[in-house]
Amino acid sequence: MKPIILLDIDGVLNPKVRRGDGDSPDPQLSDGKVALVRRLATKGRIAWVSTSPADVLAGLEAQLQLEVEPLRVTLAMKDSDVDRPTPKLRSIARWLDRMEAAGEADWDAVVWIDDVLGPDVHEWAHNYGKPVLLEKPSPDQGLTEAHVVAVQVFIDDQGGRRSGPHGLT
Predict the structure, then answer these.
(1) Of 9, 23, 40, 154, which residue has the fewest beta carbons closer than 10 angstroms?
(2) Which class for 72: exposed (0-12), middle (13-18), buried (19 or more C-beta within 10 A)?
(3) Where is 5: in which H helix or E strand?
(4) How far apart are CA 94 and CA 89, in angstroms?
C-alpha cells in the first residue's frame, strides 16, 4: 500500500521561522522532525495541507531534501469553513476527488496528519472509498515517533482487507 500523506505544518512540524535574506522566511525544522518526515516520505507521497505561504513550503522542501517533491493541496477555504470542526476538510475532499477524476491519484489510501481534526472528518473518512488513517498530534509536541509507527502499522494492517478509518490518535 502506498498512501498519500496529507501533512500539516503548524502544530505538526512546528518550524522555527526566521527572516532570511531580503526578509524572506527561513523555516527551520529540528533534526528530529526532519528525520520523521523523511521516514514518512518512504511510506507514501507527502502532500502539504497547510495555509503556510509558498515560500515557507519551499524552504521546508529545501531543508527536507526528499527524493519526491511533495504535492501541495490547494486550500480554497470559505468563511464558513472557519466555523467547522475541521476547517480544511472541504478543500481536501475536493482536492482528493479532483486528483482521482484526473487520474493523478496513484495512491490507494489516505493518511492525514493534522492537529485540527474534528468529528466531521471521522464521518468523511468512514464514507471515503479508500482506507483512511487520521493522526492528530498535540500542537505542543507535533509529529512524534508514535505517529510514524502508526502509519507503518496502518500500511501493514491494510493489505486491501479494510476500508474506512483506521483510527485517530
Answers:
(1) 23
(2) middle
(3) strand 4-7
(4) 8
| DSSP 8-class letter at 81 | G
Cell numbers describing residue 32: 528530529
CA distance 24 to 112: 29
Residue 127 identity (one-letter amino acid): N
Can you say whether residue 46 is alpha, beta or left, with left for phi > 0 and alpha for psi between -120 and 50 degrees? beta
* DSSP string across 107-158: -S-EEEE-S---HHHHHHHHHSSS-EEEE---TTT-S-HHHHHHHHHHHHHH
* CA–CA separation, 77 and 91 (whole Å): 6
Question: How far apart, in Å, are the Cα atoms of 29 and each of 3, 16, 33, 158, 162?
Answer: 24, 7, 6, 31, 35
CA-CA-CA-CA torsion sign (127, 91, 97, 57): negative
Q: What is the CA radius of gyration of the chain?
A: 15
- What is the reported pTM? 0.89
Q: Give 7-66 pLDDT, tens digit per residue.
A: 999 999 999 988 766 667 788 999 999 999 999 999 999 999 998 888 889 999 999 999
**Which three cell numbers mark 169?**
490518535
